[in-house]
Amino acid sequence: MELKIKISNWSAGLPVVMLNEKTAKELGVHAGDRISIKTISKKPREMVTILDTTEKIVNKRELGVSVEIKKRLSLREGQKIDISLSSNPMSVNYIKKKLLGKVLIEAEIKEIIQDVVNNKLSEPEIAVFISAMYKNGMNFLETVSLIDAILYSGKKLTFKNKLVVDKHCIGGIAGNRTTPIIVTICAAGGLIFPKTSSRAITSAAGTADCIEVLAPVEFSMEQLKKIVKKTNGCLTWGGSLGMVPADSKILKVEKMLKLDPTAQLLASIMSKKLADGGKYILIDIPYGKKAKVNKNKAIYLKKQFEKLGKHFNVIVKVILTKGNEPIGNGIGPALEILDVIKVLNPKEEGPTDLEKKSLYLSGLIFEMTGKAKKGKGINLAKEILDSGKAFKKFKEIISAQKGKFKGIKLSKIFKIIHSKKSGKIKEIDNKLINELARVAGCPLDKFAGVHIQHHVGDKIKKGDELITIYAESKPRLKSALKFYHEKSPIKL
Amino acid sequence: MELKIKISNWSAGLPVVMLNEKTAKELGVHAGDRISIKTISKKPREMVTILDTTEKIVNKRELGVSVEIKKRLSLREGQKIDISLSSNPMSVNYIKKKLLGKVLIEAEIKEIIQDVVNNKLSEPEIAVFISAMYKNGMNFLETVSLIDAILYSGKKLTFKNKLVVDKHCIGGIAGNRTTPIIVTICAAGGLIFPKTSSRAITSAAGTADCIEVLAPVEFSMEQLKKIVKKTNGCLTWGGSLGMVPADSKILKVEKMLKLDPTAQLLASIMSKKLADGGKYILIDIPYGKKAKVNKNKAIYLKKQFEKLGKHFNVIVKVILTKGNEPIGNGIGPALEILDVIKVLNPKEEGPTDLEKKSLYLSGLIFEMTGKAKKGKGINLAKEILDSGKAFKKFKEIISAQKGKFKGIKLSKIFKIIHSKKSGKIKEIDNKLINELARVAGCPLDKFAGVHIQHHVGDKIKKGDELITIYAESKPRLKSALKFYHEKSPIKL
Questions:
Q1: Which residue of A2, A10, A66, A254 is the best one to mutate when testing the B interface, meaning the one whose CB has the most B CBs within 10 A?
Q2: In a domain, B252, yes or no
Q3: Is the pLDDT of residue B302 over 80?
Q4: What is the ipTM of this complex?
Q5: In chain A, which among 216-275 make CB contacts under 8 A with chain B?
Q6: Is the C-alpha dihedral spanning A101, A104, A108, A110 positive or negative?
Q7: Residue A199 gets which letter from DSSP?
Q8: B28 with A130: Cβ contact below 8 A
Q9: Are B183 and B233 in contact (CB under 8 A)?
Q10: Residue A185: domain span
Q11: What pLDDT score does B13 carry?
């Protein structure tokens, strides 16, 4: 039956379609049915989604669509459209098979991922897939199939230059914002560094959240290529490029569930790096009691990444770094970018730990690509940083991304916490500091977060400033203070 | 912050609340946050739910609520309400623990169930809980805790009379509508039979769906008690009584996922039977290649039910019946109730298999309660049925439930399928017949379904009528015919 499009302003974060209950009755469809929507044209655009019904909002013979569907199918108000019933996808059975601990074959994984992308699977169904991977794991072949399927679902960047590099950090360390520093050092050193980053999933900030304080991060493939052509590098958000749409959808549900299955972690990282077109990939795995992974898990991941690198014919180097405490002083988008600028600007003094780690990783990339001899990479990196070339490159990239390099004003809603006793700092709990910054409003509130004045081992006196909590609203600050006092993330 | 209620007509089937993005910013809350809503009064009503934000639909300082929340908190347009941030519930961690295969203690299960009821867990989170139970199972103590928790979450019926009976069939057999026949025979025989039934979950029709063709099935506890007082029995829907709200929510997600973990199956049935106040409970487990369970699973369930009966101090009898083909001729709400009436009415001839099974089960209940001696129950049941007393009781119950006993008119949109060859019927696939009826529109389209003219073993000639498919709309009939020809549920 032909229906007229009615565009709804309800942005549910999910594709939603609605029929008037009378029309649904007439069509013989019910709320919860999977239906296929198809534009009426020579090259029809089509998608499958879950139906909702309503008594009022949508009139008879209208199809209400959410903003997401309008964008996806490029619909306009009043446009005619055809809908039909769609049957249950086979992928539901494959997910059940995996939940029962069986091994999936390539075609089954491909079908699950295609159905995720095409919106044929609901969020609770994706939640079962995540649960299944979390509980039963995936073997090497399954992981390879998952990467292939995710890559196949989206677009891929390609560069003619052979020295295309990439880096990834599996995260979990508060404040560990090395990426903008490494990208600018390497780009200034002649490497091609088309960096796409994620927004925060479980942390207080992702690189994309931080860069967004200064410049837009959402670009099309073509725009990104222009930026890289101009500056050798970029600092963009991967989500807007349509490179790994399946991964984004799965990550969204993972985020809701706070479950992070290893196979999906491997596939998520490798598929993004491969889609970025990187030929030399450095992966940093911080480990430790309060990091995302412990040493054993870190060693396991290292082996898997190296094996995957060989399989996909790219040079992968994995390093394990200690991740027992936050790096830098700021945690939160604006606070972290402030640390980054201090390290890059030769006239300022940035956090030593952040600078040291960034130089080490940049040096390794120079050595991987042959730009520096073994053991000499760090010197080259330091030369570029100290000379101000990296800082200049950073400003170039920000400008190429249509941003403005400017001073950062922190929120006026903050509270300084002073130490109640003298002593040596024994522990700064990464996870709790991360959570604290999130309670304060990160990553959505870019100017919220925490600033830690000290590191583990520092001696402090009663009354010394310990930490400053920033928020963009008073209720958030209150919640954060309550959290801080209940959890004591810093231990003397 | 105090907000004004704005009631939305969007019935999402889920509690949904929305804030204008500006108000959200002001409050420091984000889409996806768990928030607590509290009425401003001496005895505030409160609930926790997931927040959505919008640019337009809701004005500043308004809180948009869906119909479900309006009902739950008895809200009116413009009413003032308070909202605040709510932290992540501990139950999320317990669900993860179960997914990893660990055993949960009573308090943990209770908290999960309470959070399901209080809407603190999202559907994807409930999906993980279902996946965890499906994959890892639950031991006896966990199952007992689950039953206790589900019972604790709702209300319970109590009757002074000692001869309160109940029955349950785990389902999976198309057309197996014995319940209305058994309830009326037993009630006519002097037993108290407060039967609450479910609507269809994965099948074409539940008893509640069938009865609804003739009478309302949604009543309050008080109304139900009045009906039972008047007639000794009732045929109502369990969902409206608020007896096991946790179970209903979990079943809803199970239905989406088509996963049916054993522990939840046991808990779901036992909690409902205990809430119904039954002291003698007969459980029918049809098994077979195309039934819900095979013989081994049936034997396992029988043992578990008997053990649970002892634990909860009620008499439980479990019988295993063969379930290789549909019972009766009709599959679908109206078609099944038509079969029921034919069996009940002494002046009509109903399907023999349906009559025989109903008499057998009624007889067992008479024997369990001492109304008949061992081996003599079936005679008593037959006497009551043949005399027309059961039919009279059925009409009494329909009338007490404010229904009208009337003839049933089937849909005019139907198609008779004739056999393409002569031969003996080898197989009628229960699952496929069920699915066929669902594709035709069951259970929501009450007059849709299929009518099977034959049973396994029947000899038929080329051109004989095999099956009739009914639908309420042409697209549904078309889909059903396509399904029939692709899957061939009847094999010669």
A1: A10
A2: no
A3: yes
A4: 0.75
A5: 253, 256-259
A6: positive
A7: P
A8: no
A9: yes
A10: 165-242+269-400
A11: 52
